Structure formats: structure tokens, C-alpha cells
Amino acid sequence: MKRYTVICRPDPQSEAIKEKAIGELNEKGYVMDDRKPEIVFVIGGDGTFIYAVHHVRRLMGVRLGEVVFYGIHTGTLGFTMDFRGEEYREFMDTFFERKYTEIKYPLLQALYGDKVHYGLNEIRIENAARTQKLDVYINGEKFETFRGTGMCVCTQLGSTAYNRSLGGAVLQEGMDFIQLTEMAGIHHSKFRSLEAPFVLKGDTELEFRTDNFASALLGCDASVFPLEGVNSVKIHICPEVWVRMLRGRSVSYFERLKSLF
Ligand code: NAP
Ligand code: MN
Fold first, then answer.
1. Among 34, 46, 135, 211, which one carries the catalytic annotation?
2. What share of the chain has pLDDT > 70, as a percent?
3. Looking at the predicted structure, is the pLDDT value of residue 91 above 80?
């Protein structure tokens, strides 16, 4: 593992760590390669990690699995990184001495027409302009008709992000589940849908059908795409592509969760 790149949040503390890391890596014979890296150092927060994964996925396509990510958190302890900025020495030594293990995060995939989009935290169907009607199918079976702003499908990792703001449950690290939550659902004498957050098995196939997606957007983590003219969006965990991450030491999931609020 010799070719590396660094993806960094643009703030003074993160930039300073980046410069130090580049100096050490080059000195030890590692080669910076922004186009075909084998290891991606991520300096910043969980948001930076999400950004880094999308950046590298666009660069490498399905060969994303050939890359490992390794992160250092500048700020509060996150979910994707095990070291804080002041633990820089330990972070680098763990890497050089190969004292890490590897974990894998699944990616959600949204399919419609010839389009494929990915979400590491979540994929949302949202409409700020008007009430969105969605027929929800689970593994090909009609489940409900939802009316409201939209719906959010998240991964275990994403359960503490947008999902949590929607009143969804936090899923403990290691759980192979996805979660479906409503965004401002309408519930009265005429319209009904489950309303409660719904935790589903990791291999569940969701489909959202409608005759009108005008003004609707597909939100995939930090990116949005127009859905106008589309009639069906399928969302599931992508079985082929995983995100590989180096775990530098074990940090309690509850410690991470406590640092969130
Ligand atoms: P961002 O500024 O990169 O992230 C927004 C906040 O969400 C940051 O504080 C970030 O933590 C935190 N975050 C990201 N992933 C997380 C995770 N898995 N668990 C806990 N916290 C997490 O925002 P962005 O680039 O627009 O969007 C990235 C993500 O932010 C989206 O996937 C979405 O889940 C979340 N988001 C949430 C809301 C909401 O709750 N209403 C709105 C927009 C976006 P760091 O400070 O460590 O980077
Ligand atoms: Mn953070």
C-alpha cells in the first residue's frame, strides 16, 4: 500500500495535519497519487468522510473496493474515525506499524431509468414544493401509500445523521439493517401510513412509485438530483460495492454516540 491521497476539511487545524502527514509519508517512500490511490487519508469530520467516499467513488467507480480510507477527526469524536487531531502521533504510528483492522460500510443504491446514485448515510426522496404521494413497495409487495414531504432510507451508519433528526432510531454499530422514516407525513381521516420509523433487514428492496415527481429531488447524502419525469425509484443496499475503512483502535460505540449530543 504505497499510493495515497489526502482529503481534508478546509480549516487551519486540518490543513496543518495534512501538511505534516504528507511530509512523513513522502519521507517514508509513499507516493501521492490523487487519481489512483490505494489509501485515502481523511482529515476532518464524518461529513468529510462522506465527501471523500463520494469523491473517490466518482473517480474509481466499482473499483472503490480497491481503496481503504483512514481518518483523523478534527473536532468532536465521530463515527467514522478513531483518533482526534491531538492524537496525530498515535494515528500515524498505528498506520506505519500496521496495527489497524479493517471494517466495511455498505452503500445504498438508488436506481431509476439508466441512473444509479449512492448514499453512505441515506437516500431521501423529498419534495419541498407540494405534497408528494409515494406508493411504497417492500420486496415487490405493496405496503402503503405515503403523503407528505418525503421519505428517508438510511444505513446503520446514517442512523445518527438525518434519520435521527426525523425521529428515527439509532442503530448500534454492526447491525445489518436499513431504516425507512417519513418526512412530515400527513395522517388524518383520509390519509394513513405507518408513521413510525421502520427498521428493515439489510437485504430489503424498497421501491417508491408515483405518477408525479414534479419538483421532487433525490437526496443522496450531500447531493441532490431532480426526479421530474421519473415514475419509480428502487433503493437497496448495493451488494457489490463496499467502503473499506481502517480501524486504528477500538472506540466504544456509546462513547461516540455520547459525543454527538
Ligand atoms: P455536513 O455539514 O457534512 O454534515 C452535517 C452534520 O452531520 C455534521 O455535523 C456532520 O458531522 C454530521 N454527520 C454526517 N454524517 C453523520 C453520521 N453518520 N452520524 C452523525 N453525524 C453525522 O452536511 P452535508 O454535507 O450537507 O450532508 C452530509 C450529511 O449531513 C447527510 O448525509 C445528512 O445525513 C446530514 N444532514 C442532516 C440534516 C438534518 O439532520 N436535518 C440536514 C442536512 C444534512 P461532522 O461535523 O463530524 O462532519
Ligand atoms: Mn463531528
1. 46
2. 100
3. yes
Q: In testing the pocket of ligand 1, which one of 50, 54, 74 has its CB within 8 Å of the most ligand atoms?
A: 50
Would you say residue 1 has pLDDT above 80? no
**What pLDDT, on a 0 to 100 scale, did the predictor assign at position 214?**
97
DSSP string for the chain = --EEEEEE-SSHHHHHHHHHHHHHHHHTT-EE-SSS-SEEEEEE-HHHHHHHHHHHHHHHGGGGGG-EEEEEESSS--SS-SEEGGGHHHHHHHHHTT--EEEEEEEEEEEETTEEEEESSEEEEE-SSSPEEEEEEETTEEEEEEEEEEEEEE-TGGGGTHHHHTTPPPPPTT--EEEEEEEEE--SSS-----S-EEEETT--EEEE-S--TT-EEEETTEEEE-TT--EEEEEEEEEEEEEEEE-S---HHHHHHTT-
Predicted TM-score (pTM) above 0.70: yes
46 is an active site residue: yes
